[in-house]
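Here is the promised in-class demo. Please do not try to memorize the tokens; focus on the logic of going from shape to residues.
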């Protein structure tokens, strides 16, 4: 790297000790300092080779101790920073002026056990620093005048900020500074951790910019839980020194007392969160097609994961089609559908059948409708006012898990789908090579949950039940529970709501065989569980209708004549 002349002999060189490129400077007196490893070289050898970019290794590094008598300069006010001579003298800071009396250098002493062991020189006009001594072994700037323990210690980002803070406090509270700016804040605090943790509260007041705020949080995580407070300066002020120059004493003190206890991400203090609580967005909701479900669940909500489950042949697909049609017809939201067990045309046909009140996926039924009638229904659902609102997965047989999640995210983010239907979970599981079904389901459910939390979409997930022990299965009307969910308890844990279908399709009683119970197994929103409603299937229309169980008192003759036949589901 080409050497750059900047008031020193050379800067931005490769360090001969740590070999870090661009952090080594050579002073006019032949000494050198690395801003990366903090090593001071009393006399740099092979200067010209270093300046020409030639790598010099294994250079002997000599640490030098600095004594007060070696420090140049004199005590005086830091007029460029608005800091009084009294304060500068208290911190041991000296200045160097030019022939016109202008302050051109600050010399900040650093102490170890009350002895000066390092000093940092700030070149005011050039905005550059140099070091003498062993900086890593010193305490924080200003530590020598602070009590060993107390109620509060304020930590700032620079030496002038420490002195400014001291003046803003009227000398009532100790203020110290880290040594190497925001980038080295954590390292500096760790080196002086015993001193800092001698205080009940450490108030971190770094620069009011992104690097300063990030460094403040990193330092807070190093300190004892509950002891770190992060101070936020008023808008328009970058640091304490700026507040001092603008005589903002009372504003600084007010910000000090308002400093908030640091809490890690995901943990918050409720008393500090009232405004966020009141301003939270109300989740958009859509009612279910059936009153019984709404009475228990108060509708479908965006930002929630609803799992629909039931035994084989009990009507999960029929219920799903009713929900898809309902969302398309009764909301203005975009709807995304991923049906992994059927071609997309069958999905479109199924929803169209709900609109037609006829099973149009059966050829002879479809033939009863004219092309004009079909076009009109298609227009109602998929064109017209609903144009570009319904998005469907169109690659039957392609179940790569990452590809599916990519499509889910695209539907939500790219197509603005507020509602997503995934049919079904175990087809996703089958795409994974992992042999452990439980672990695969855990992984998928976690990703689905994260997607819902991130995007705020409402997701309806179809899942299967495991086989139950005993002589009866779910086709015999066995009452379901969360423990019957196939594969993993994460399905129940990560779902906001679990809805189960129950029906004894093997019953000799036609009424019982043709009646599906809708049972709520979990409702995080209301806590209300149990039987919500009863649905019957009309073979002629292909529709599910909600009925009062008390109305299902059909005679044997009537039962034989009815067209209700849920075995067709």
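The designed amino acids, position by position:
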């Amino acid at each position: 790297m080409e050497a750059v002349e900047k008031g020193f002999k050379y800067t931005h060189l490769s360090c001969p000790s740590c070999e870090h490129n661009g952090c080594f400077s050579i002073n006019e007196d032949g000494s050198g300092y690395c801003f990366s490893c903090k090593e001071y070289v009393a006399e740099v050898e092979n200067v010209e080779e270093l300046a020409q970019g030639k790598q010099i290794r294994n250079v002997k590094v000599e640490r030098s101790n600095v004594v007060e008598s070696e420090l140049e300069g004199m005590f005086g006010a830091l007029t460029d920073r608005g800091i009084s001579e009294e304060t500068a003298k208290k911190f041991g800071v000296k200045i160097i002026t030019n022939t016109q009396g202008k302050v051109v250098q600050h010399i900040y002493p650093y102490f170890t056990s009350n002895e000066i062991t390092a000093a940092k020189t700030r070149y005011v006009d050039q905005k550059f620093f140099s070091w003498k001594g062993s900086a890593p072994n010193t305490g924080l700037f200003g530590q020598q005048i602070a009590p060993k323990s107390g109620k509060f210690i304020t930590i700032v980002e620079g030496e002038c900020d420490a002195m400014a803070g001291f003046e803003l406090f009227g000398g009532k509270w100790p203020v110290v500074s880290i040594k190497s700016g925001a980038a080295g804040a954590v390292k500096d605090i760790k080196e002086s951790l015993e001193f800092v943790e001698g205080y009940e509260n450490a108030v971190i007041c770094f620069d009011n910019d992104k690097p300063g705020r990030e460094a403040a949080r990193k330092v807070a995580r190093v300190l004892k839980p509950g002891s770190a407070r992060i101070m936020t300066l008023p808008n328009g002020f970058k640091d304490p020194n700026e507040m001092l120059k603008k005589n903002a004493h009372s504003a600084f003190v007010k910000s000090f007392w308002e400093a908030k206890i640091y809490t890690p991400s995901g943990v918050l203090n409720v008393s500090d969160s009232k405004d966020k609580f009141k301003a939270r967005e109300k989740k958009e909701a859509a009612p279910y097609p059936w009153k019984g479900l709404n009475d228990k669940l108060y509708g479908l909500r965006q930002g929630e994961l609803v799992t629909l489950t039931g035994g084989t042949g009990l009507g999960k697909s029929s219920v799903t089609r009713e929900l898809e049609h309902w969302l398309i017809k009764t909301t203005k939201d975009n709807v995304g559908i991923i049906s992994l067990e059927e071609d997309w045309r069958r999905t479109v046909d199924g929803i169209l059948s709900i609109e037609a009140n006829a099973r149009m996926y059966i050829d002879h039924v479809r033939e009863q409708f004219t092309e004009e009638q079909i076009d009109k229904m298609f227009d109602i659902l998929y064109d017209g006012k609903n144009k570009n609102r319904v998005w469907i997965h169109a690659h039957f047989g392609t179940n790569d898990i990452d590809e599916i999640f990519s499509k889910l995210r695209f539907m939500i983010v790219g197509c603005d789908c507020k509602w997503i239907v995934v049919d079904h979970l175990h087809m996703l599981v089958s795409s994974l090579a992992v042999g452990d079904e439980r672990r695969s389901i855990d992984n998928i459910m976690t990703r689905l949950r994260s997607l819902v939390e991130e995007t705020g979409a409402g997701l309806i997930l179809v899942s299967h039940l495991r086989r139950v022990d005993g002589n009866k299965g779910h086709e015999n009307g066995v009452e379901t529970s969360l423990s019957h969910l196939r594969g993993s308890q994460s399905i129940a844990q990560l779902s906001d709501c679990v809805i189960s279908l129950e029906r004894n399709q093997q019953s000799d009683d036609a009424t019982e065989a043709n009646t599906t119970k809708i049972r709520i197994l979990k409702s995080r929103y209301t806590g209300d569980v149990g039987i919500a409603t009863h649905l019957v299937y009309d073979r002629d229309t292909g529709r599910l209708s909600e009925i009062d169980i008390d109305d299902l008192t059909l005679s044997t003759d009537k039962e034989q004549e009815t067209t209700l036949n849920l075995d067709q589901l």
